Amino acid sequence: MKTATAPMPPTAHALPGGRLRRVWPAAVALVATAAVVTGCTATAAEPTNLPEKNIAEWVTPLDQYIPQNASNANYAEQLLVGKCIEKAGLSWAVPWRDIHADNGPSWNSVERRLFNSDLAAKYGYHNGPAVDESLPAWQAFVASKQSMSSAEEAAIGKCVPEARKTLPLLSPTAAQKALDLIQVSYDAAFQDDDVVAAASKWRTCMEPQGIADLPDSPRKMPSDSLVSRFSLDLGDRVGTTSVDPKEVAIATADAACRDSSGFAKALYDAEWDRDVAALRDNADELARAEKEIKANETAVLDVISSNAPAK
Questions:
Q1: CB–CB of 132/24 below 8 Å?
Q2: Cα–Cα distance between 291 and 302 in angstroms, integer?
Q3: What residues are paired with 8 via a beta bridge?
Q4: Beta-carbon neighbour count of residue 137 at 10 Å?
Q5: How many domains does the chain have?
Q6: Side-chain half-sphere of 23: how many Cα atoms within 13 Å?
Q7: Residue range 193-216: average pLDDT?
Q8: Helix (H) or strand (E) holding 193
Q9: Which among 114, 170, 104 has a CA at the least distance from the CA of 2?
């Protein structure tokens, strides 16, 4: 049975519920970011469209407003760009990608990095292995485009706008609104009195592990010394099954302490409550964003089905 101990961010520490990972592994990023703008409507009705709570997968009320096709949208744009560039006599052979690939057990459906006792026992602080046979070819393609000729750069300048006529970008609000609100909720949740108190209990629980730079909160775990000691790359998309037993021992202790101290539940509940408030206060804007996101997802899949190379 999977127990709850909370997500971690992709590139820093093992933060419960941390910033969601949005991956743009190609020559051109697709989404512009927008500043957080939160409205406040004192008489707004309480949301009725809330998902079922699931702390093990760190499901939150705003997940439903997150674009689900970040990597797919990037892939679709690259397919259109590639065809345009090749018409100019240049090579831009976009490889086949498995758009249904499994990111592995360390990521939830909206690409939050998870951390719980089961994952810690199997992978320590490392990510579990992804099931994506197309990833190596895609990574090689991305690497090959890090340095472009002047002709390729000129073609990119022409072909990206052409691709976006066929497949327009999501508006900044649709692309980023929920992510920004989630980050605000997440940061604020750490200031919650129950979370602060539980973090102190977690630290006391972890002291026997002898970590020289043990932080005051799980927000900064794994610590810098552990990242260095175990060569951790928390944003690794490939994952691994080969983990130092000492890392597993510390990670499982960490997961157990997050549960026994009440930290994981306190943080989850605090973030959930703040997400509910954000959904209530931004309901109309989020509803419009959701409609745009769904239309974009349909368009992305249409482009991929019409332009993707054979496996």
A1: no
A2: 17
A3: 113
A4: 13
A5: 1
A6: 22
A7: 98
A8: helix 193-206
A9: 114
Q: Are 267 and 17 in contact (CB under 8 A)?
A: yes
Please report whether residue 202 resides in a domain.
Answer: yes
**Cα atoms in the Cβ-side hemisphere of radius 13 Å centred on 20:** 27
Q: What integer pLDDT is reported at residue 18 of this predicted model? A: 41
pLDDT on residue 25? 28
Q: How far is CA 22 from CA 11, 53, 73, in A?
A: 11, 23, 11
Instruction: Kindly state the average pLDDT of the residues 146-158.
Output: 92
Report how far residue 29's alpha carbon sits from residue 26's, in angstroms, rounded to the nearest whole number. 7
Give SS3 for 203: helix
In whole angstroms, what is the distance from residue 311 CA to residue 105 CA? 25
Domain that holds residue 96: 63-307
Q: At what angle do helices 263-281 and 172-189 cross, to 10 degrees?
A: 140
Question: How many CA atoms lie within 13 Å of 77's alpha carbon, on the beta-carbon side?
Answer: 26
Tell whether 296 is covered by a domain: yes
Q: How many CA atoms lie within 13 A of 269 on its CB side?
A: 10
Domain assignment present for 219: yes
Q: Which helix (H) or strand (E) holds 176?
A: helix 172-189
Give the confidence band of 239 by pLDDT, cuts at 50, 70, 90: confident
**Residues paired with residue 131 on neighbouring β-strands, in sequence order:** 102
- Torsion angle defined by CA atoms of residues 102, 108, 110 and 111, in that order, rounded to the nearest 10 degrees: -80
Please report where in the chains the tokens 């998870």 appear, as a residue.
114
pLDDT tens for each residue of 64-93: 999 987 789 999 999 999 999 999 999 999
Does residue 142 lie in a domain region? Answer: yes
